């Protein structure tokens, strides 16, 4: 086996950004959220990711602003460390090693240099018992610090971070778990616990789900499983506590949050409605409905200007305090299963798969960003558990990207299967897809496969859909109908219904020039002529049902490949209608690259997946890799590259024209990347950091404006190199502020470095540098 | 925050015929005027000169009707027996008619008594027409002959005895004074030239020929006989061009519309079909009450006149497009100024522009659905005009409620009146195949909910019994249809098998020959 060192598998598509509560910075300009093994810093205005704080080696489980310095942030992770970051520059300041996996982190201004973390109780390894621990953070200038000074505060807490909250000014700490609420007073060093019965008289479940403490008042709000919110007061005595109940949510309240002044209480749940309750006037409430998906977390910025809600569809919505959505940060939506498979939009080269219920998401692979959602179902989404919704199950693009076909279905327990086939045409003016034809009940049973005729130059496109009812249907665009002067849009209609001895078609495939259609009916592959719809030939290689079918491309277009469920891959020569070769391989996925002759086969073998890339005409594979990833690969796609790579190495040549993306059963989007590509990426990311150094301050505005004018005047004149180019200044500008020595010490050195350049550059330039330095300090 | 997505009203395929330009054109006629004649109307002929009166031959009379009056302007009654084929001359002054008593009579349109009588045929004369020369008459009769007569002298010029059966139709050329064509029950069409002794062309129609028609260019000839309408190319020596079989009884009459673009054929199956003359496809169809014997089309298609065996003459006049619509005075609308108020305001440079969000307009039921008022939503969808005019909207709302899982809640808790309204709707639309799946679930849920109160209200019980009867009937129909389908399947299977068998046998024959 040859070592393919320069090709490796990398993750794409980002990870969950809705895992934990995001944090909004003090000036409301940045939003920080835990995302996989890193913390992402987003701009709250432009929705762009500004920095990614990388360093943790485990899942990041919490982000928290440092109470004593609002430009620094703590993050905790399951790797047993707490890290302190400077998030404006994206620099790791210090690492505290705790030694136990950390599940959430809390701090208050009252407790200097102490953070409270939730860790599992070590006695029982498998029992899910957690305790709240106070950690003293030692104040040393070292980068790596051992923080072993732990003291348990509360035992038997929940690992969910929204179940613990600090009370007014950090005087007390409230925690809820199942049916018990515990309030711990630091001064008295004493805790009171309150418990509820499991069910109310009406049968509602009383389990606590979340908690929030009023910042100015002795009041604790708790959310419950039956949608109730309880406001607890007077809990300083064990006996005389009172509570009032607010009820609007129909299902569990997932998050609660008070605004910094304590005037409003925000709550959210599965209804995807943000509810704003007035404190002390609870019958007045504001709603922000239809936020798209169930709310998992609600947060408020420290100045109260912005709210943010995290949603179950990997989305963070930023809301102004006047209850108006201002920005949406959307990650790649990963549902339970991707039924449409991975597709590539030929126009935008975006990856298309189903995301939100009833939508198709278009995900730009180059920019690693979700472009938009296309609403396929066009129905009001009802947030209710146990309700059967319409799901997009199949989608297909034609070669030019002009037409999109989608299939949606809804299966109710007792009723018939509801199927809709929709055809969308691309509108040049609005640059989006417009619904052209809806075919209700195109087939009597589930549609197993759907594909467009591939030939890009042909006048008419044909869509073929195969279904479990034993038929495949060909759909064609009709001629525009002229009636009474009003021209109607041409619509799609069924052109041909084909069947083969009552067998169930499982896959279908058009040849590259659109002259042949292959339909796999269980064990038999039938080849049809799409113009006259006559059955040309049948190919068969029993036993085993045909699972995948694809035609060869370019010089290999005479081959038809198929894989069946009895671990066989067959290649037929269509000129002789005979079997060219066959091999025993358990191929779960077979796909063809439209830019070259290459084909990729994913084989699933005991828990891991192997990849083979080969040409149908050659006996040896071009590339093979064992154990590409753990688990089964469920979907894969070749995407064309915008710029061709020029790799001379034989093993990576197959990645020159296109990239291979694949999705595992754990919903990880992976791809192969070559060394050259990575180097290019690294270079571009370095450039980005340098561009970012100039901040918009009044000083900059004043001088920057002046400088722009200045530049405009002497645009034609030859520009002298700026002082930034000198090594000393570069060093000075690129080292973070907190590592720098005192300003007074630096000043003379800096001035010295300028002395040389002053003779040749204008004074304005040096001033601008000074301004930049001043901003930094 | 996304806006509320209103209920999708599916654009259901319209049942019935497709609307094309042709259907619009041919439907643009007023309700027919029906006139009772004395017997079966055998022929209708329009006068070629304005005001385009038409002669209707029925039993022993010929009536001449004006274009607008429903009373005949003139009547010719001096026939001893049934009259046939009353036709105008090209100047509209003279009228000729055959008769059962074998005498051909010539009338002046203004006069009453016959000007001339042409005697010579031995049997009933079914065809009589003027030639283009204006001084000769063509007649054809059941004695198998056709003859040419000189009008002023009433002498027979020529007699052709080539047909071997009754001659029942004939047409004279409008461009050539010597040419005429006759069709006979001996299945042949013959083209005669009066300058020669014999027919110049013979075509075989295959059925007794009932009617003939020449195109204005006279390159094509249309013949009707049996169930077939056939088009012949005369310039290619009588080559058959098309054979149309769209009627299921004998085609009796043919006509061409004024532009020559559409061909009409009338038949005993009570239909008039309109064909496109470029592709010979049926573009429209008229239904009549009885078997049609004669058909006439006024110049410019101003009216369609049809004579039937039940002696009714039906006249359809074209609707005038310029006819002012009899609507009441249009409602006075607010003036232009009202709508333009504030619209032409141009903001100044430093003005802060506050955009007004566009308000989403929602239908009444959508407003209720948005508020999750499911019962009210169903009530608004069941409003009288909506459920009568647009049942698809009501069904769509029911479907939406079902999708939301709240249909049961919406249907429950209704009083007698509301429930009977709902049941009426269900009964009325149950067997519309587009709505059946939705309404079946609705009916099921209604029965589930209200089964404990059945028998308390007579109205509801009546509705339920009605529904039950309808269902039984439908099941009976379906059973019948399934039986027929089974029979057809066996028949098809048998025929296929036989074909294959024949193929195989032929194959064996070939082999044995080898």
UniProtKB/TrEMBL annotation, chain A:
<dbReference type="InterPro" id="IPR053826">
    <property type="entry name" value="WDR75"/>
</dbReference>
<keyword id="KW-0853">WD repeat</keyword>
<dbReference type="GO" id="GO:0003723">
    <property type="term" value="F:RNA binding"/>
</dbReference>
<dbReference type="GO" id="GO:0032040">
    <property type="term" value="C:small-subunit processome"/>
</dbReference>
<dbReference type="InterPro" id="IPR036322">
    <property type="entry name" value="WD40_repeat_dom_sf"/>
</dbReference>
<protein>
    <submittedName>
        <fullName>WD repeat domain 75</fullName>
    </submittedName>
</protein>
<dbReference type="GO" id="GO:2000234">
    <property type="term" value="P:positive regulation of rRNA processing"/>
</dbReference>
<dbReference type="InterPro" id="IPR015943">
    <property type="entry name" value="WD40/YVTN_repeat-like_dom_sf"/>
</dbReference>
<keyword id="KW-0690">Ribosome biogenesis</keyword>
<dbReference type="GO" id="GO:0006364">
    <property type="term" value="P:rRNA processing"/>
</dbReference>
<feature type="domain" description="WD repeat-containing protein 75 second beta-propeller">
    <location>
        <begin position="342"/>
        <end position="666"/>
    </location>
</feature>
<keyword id="KW-0698">rRNA processing</keyword>
<dbReference type="InterPro" id="IPR057644">
    <property type="entry name" value="Beta-prop_WDR75_2nd"/>
</dbReference>
<keyword id="KW-0677">Repeat</keyword>
<dbReference type="GO" id="GO:0045943">
    <property type="term" value="P:positive regulation of transcription by RNA polymerase I"/>
</dbReference>
<dbReference type="Pfam" id="PF23869">
    <property type="entry name" value="Beta-prop_WDR75_1st"/>
</dbReference>
<feature type="repeat" description="WD">
    <location>
        <begin position="246"/>
        <end position="287"/>
    </location>
</feature>
<keyword id="KW-0804">Transcription</keyword>
<keyword id="KW-0539">Nucleus</keyword>
<dbReference type="Pfam" id="PF23769">
    <property type="entry name" value="Beta-prop_WDR75_2nd"/>
</dbReference>
<dbReference type="InterPro" id="IPR019775">
    <property type="entry name" value="WD40_repeat_CS"/>
</dbReference>
<feature type="repeat" description="WD">
    <location>
        <begin position="53"/>
        <end position="95"/>
    </location>
</feature>
UniProtKB/TrEMBL annotation, chain B:
<dbReference type="Pfam" id="PF00400">
    <property type="entry name" value="WD40"/>
</dbReference>
<dbReference type="InterPro" id="IPR018983">
    <property type="entry name" value="U3_snoRNA-assocProt_15_C"/>
</dbReference>
<comment type="subunit">
    <text>Part of the small subunit (SSU) processome, composed of more than 70 proteins and the RNA chaperone small nucleolar RNA (snoRNA) U3. May be a component of the proposed t-UTP subcomplex of the ribosomal small subunit (SSU) processome.</text>
</comment>
<dbReference type="InterPro" id="IPR036322">
    <property type="entry name" value="WD40_repeat_dom_sf"/>
</dbReference>
<dbReference type="InterPro" id="IPR019775">
    <property type="entry name" value="WD40_repeat_CS"/>
</dbReference>
<keyword id="KW-0698">rRNA processing</keyword>
<feature type="repeat" description="WD">
    <location>
        <begin position="244"/>
        <end position="285"/>
    </location>
</feature>
<dbReference type="GO" id="GO:0006364">
    <property type="term" value="P:rRNA processing"/>
</dbReference>
<keyword id="KW-0853">WD repeat</keyword>
<comment type="function">
    <text>Ribosome biogenesis factor. Involved in nucleolar processing of pre-18S ribosomal RNA. Required for optimal pre-ribosomal RNA transcription by RNA polymerase I. Part of the small subunit (SSU) processome, first precursor of the small eukaryotic ribosomal subunit. During the assembly of the SSU processome in the nucleolus, many ribosome biogenesis factors, an RNA chaperone and ribosomal proteins associate with the nascent pre-rRNA and work in concert to generate RNA folding, modifications, rearrangements and cleavage as well as targeted degradation of pre-ribosomal RNA by the RNA exosome.</text>
</comment>
<dbReference type="InterPro" id="IPR015943">
    <property type="entry name" value="WD40/YVTN_repeat-like_dom_sf"/>
</dbReference>
<feature type="repeat" description="WD">
    <location>
        <begin position="118"/>
        <end position="159"/>
    </location>
</feature>
<keyword id="KW-0677">Repeat</keyword>
<dbReference type="InterPro" id="IPR001680">
    <property type="entry name" value="WD40_rpt"/>
</dbReference>
<dbReference type="GO" id="GO:0005730">
    <property type="term" value="C:nucleolus"/>
</dbReference>
<keyword id="KW-0539">Nucleus</keyword>
<feature type="domain" description="U3 small nucleolar RNA-associated protein 15 C-terminal">
    <location>
        <begin position="345"/>
        <end position="490"/>
    </location>
</feature>
<protein>
    <recommendedName>
        <fullName>U3 small nucleolar RNA-associated protein 15 homolog</fullName>
    </recommendedName>
</protein>
<dbReference type="Pfam" id="PF09384">
    <property type="entry name" value="UTP15_C"/>
</dbReference>
<dbReference type="GO" id="GO:0045943">
    <property type="term" value="P:positive regulation of transcription by RNA polymerase I"/>
</dbReference>
